[in-house]
Amino acid sequence: MHRDSVWRLPTTVCRITDLLGKEASDGLLNRAIDTATGTMKASTIRDGEVVPGYRRSRSDGTFTAPELIDAIMEILPSVEKALGVSCPDSEVSYGLNVHNDGDYYRAHQDVGTQDFASRRLLTFVYYLHRTPRPFEGGALRVYDGATSMHDGGRPLTWEDRAWQDWGPDHDSIVFFLPDKWHEVRTVTCPGKDPADSRFAVNGWLCAPAG
């Protein structure tokens, strides 16, 4: 075997389109637009840090979407089967993320050592936007796993990993495991109108505390 051989492990993503239907998704979009045209805080990483070179967007953790959560719970058994995960008695945590011109989120995982992050079992991202789509970019890039096959374990680079991009299509949702590396590709929205943003309800199903 060549000393620089890399074993790539494909990442499974479960994607569902037309989740809520036109009436419900349009109503949720209008609430998201109202939120975006108000006061929103810069998105943070880790322990509440704002790091524009790594993540640039705005977030609202108080945004509520009960119709979305009901729809997720209805399809959850099929998602669990597709991804090989079990989320019994799980708690749902989510918020609204808004990406406008020049915004992005570099490659990251949704797991960590903090109590909340360590309890995440399943990640979901639900997309909303005006039609026709008023921005470009903003794909969710999900990376495959990569392992060096060389006994010495040479350092791996991002070029060692394959990936797949998932478009942020209105009323679509993606599910994947929180330990998978993923990023939000840069959004281009020349008019910079908040209503023309890439809206996403990001969240997790988490194991119960304690």
Looking at this protein, list some descriptive labels.
210 residues; seven-stranded antiparallel β-sheet; five-stranded antiparallel β-sheet; 18% helix; globular
Q: Could you give a short description of this structure?
A:
The chain is of the alpha+beta class and 210 residues long.
Structural write-up:
This protein is an alpha+beta fold. It is about 20% helix and about 35% strand. The chain has helices spanning about 20-35, 65-85, 115-120, and strands at about 5-10, 15, 40, 55, 60, 90-100, 105-110, 120-130, 135, 140-145, 145-150, 165, 170-175, 180-185, 185-190, 200-205. The strands form 4 sheets. A 7-stranded antiparallel β-sheet has the order 2-13-8-16-6-5-3. The longest helix has 18 residues, at about 65-85. The chain starts with 5 loop residues before the first strand and ends with a strand. The relative contact order is 0.28. The model has no long low-confidence stretch (mean pLDDT about 95).
